[in-house]
UniProtKB/TrEMBL annotation:
This is Protoheme IX farnesyltransferase. It catalyses: heme b + (2E,6E)-farnesyl diphosphate + H2O = Fe(II)-heme o + diphosphate. One of its GO terms (cellular component) is plasma membrane. InterPro entries: Protohaem_IX_farnesylTrfase (IPR006369), UbiA_prenyltransferase (IPR000537), UbiA_sf (IPR044878). NCBIfam families: cyoE_ctaB, PRK04375.1-2. One of its GO terms (biological process) is heme O biosynthetic process. Gene3D superfamilies: UbiA prenyltransferase. Pathway: Porphyrin-containing compound metabolism; heme O biosynthesis; heme O from protoheme: step 1/1. It is a multi-pass membrane protein.
Length: 301
């Protein structure tokens, strides 16, 4: 697409509001919500289902905006984030705050009125947990920030499920557990090769507080319960063989990559190939795992 065509389709200011929602990261968040919704028992009208997923996407966008509103100064100190709309000076903070609060109120309100109030309550709690508990409280204060705060990112499939059934049973809690246990390896693998960036911004991520060896041990350590949680739906008879085989294969690969990270002694980011591979694979892993879970539950189980 030419620059002119792109500017007509999405003018510069719109692109900045779009960037506030962290669309790339949130695409997987929304995808896990969709899979939770599709895997849930019972029927939901397609328009209500679409509304529910849209509300989750808007709620996730609210999280990205409120996070960037609060972290503008921190983002300015890291090469990866310095070009975001606020640190780059393309938008004022008030606008980001209003946008974030507006999206949060709109998404929760519509979810409650059009879908059900349990899913709206869970959505509101996730936004609160990520924006306030994680961003303002945990992230600047403890290297366990992403372990506890990561819970926010684990809620979407539960919200999708609750949108259909109006309740939360053990299986959606298991989906929550998979993402909760996946988040530390996902993020710490990245934090290892981006260590200096977070350190420079004064954020106490595990590698710059406890060191690389502890981080590698923790990554490998979390991978086992994560793999166990991923395979459990099959063991409990809540999925068919398609998901059973896929979850074992994907989790086996995840464990091998995490083992390589654990073995690696490199201190230089250039020699952190296993870490880069694990981070990239973590995204593919979650995407495929949830896709196959939903397909299996819809078609086979
Ligand atoms: C507290 C928990 C988490 C932290 C701290 C974290 C952090 C990060 C960071 C720093 C990146 C680098 C790229 C960027 O800035 O866009 C990233 C990438 C990514 N994360 Fe996470 N993440 C977390 C949880 C999640 C969750 C729950 C999901 C989805 C279920 C997710 C999905 C992704 C995806 C898809 C990317 C790749 C984005 C791209 O292609 O640019 N993350 N994550
Ligand atoms: C449905 C719903 C409300 C879901 C919300 C869950 C959520 C926001 C998950 C994503 C986690 C995420 C973007 C972490 C980025 O960390 P960071 O913000 O610390 O990264 P940064 O260093 O790039 O700012």
């Amino acid at each position: 697409m030419t620059t002119a065509a792109r500017d007509i389709l999405m003018p510069a200011e719109w692109r900045d509001f779009w960037a506030l929602t962290k669309p790339r990261v949130m695409s997987l968040v929304v995808f896990t919500a969709l899979c939770g919704l599709l895997a849930a028992p019972g029927n939901i009208h397609p328009i209500i289902a679409f509304t529910a997923v849209l509300c989750i996407a808007l709620g996730a966008g609210a999280c990205g905006s409120l996070n960037q509103w609060y972290e503008a100064d921190v983002d300015a100190k890291m090469a990866r984030t310095a070009q975001r709309p606020l640190p780059a000076g393309r938008m004022d903070r008030e606008a980001a705050l209003h946008f974030g609060v507006g999206l949060a109120a709109f998404s929760v309100g519509i979810m409650g009125v059009a879908v059900n109030w349990l899913s709206a309550g869970l959505l509101a709690f996730s936004i609160f947990f990520y924006s306030i508990v994680y961003t303002i409280w945990l992230k600047p204060n403890t290297p366990q920030n992403i372990v506890i705060g990561g819970a926010a990112g684990a809620f979407p499939p539960v919200i999708g499920w609750a949108a259909v059934t109006g309740d939360v049973t053990f299986l959606p809690v298991l989906l929550f557990a998979i993402i909760f246990l996946w988040t530390p390896p996902h993020f710490w693998a990245l934090a290892l090769f981006m260590k200096t960036d977070y350190g420079a911004a004064g954020i106490p991520m595990l590698p710059n507080v406890k060191g690389q060896r502890v981080t590698r041990n923790q990554i490998f350590g979390y991978s086992f319960p994560m793999a166990g949680a991923a395979i459990l739906p099959f063991i409990l008879g809540d999925s068919g063989w398609l998901y059973g085989a896929t979850s074992m294969l994907l989790s086996g690969l995840f464990l091998i990559l995490a083992f390589r990270v654990w073995q690696n002694e490199a201190t230089d980011a250039a020699a952190m190939k296993p870490e880069k591979q694990l981070f990239a694979f973590s995204i593919l892993y979650l995407f495929l795992l949830f896709a196959l879970f939903a397909i299996d539950r819809m078609v086979i189980a």
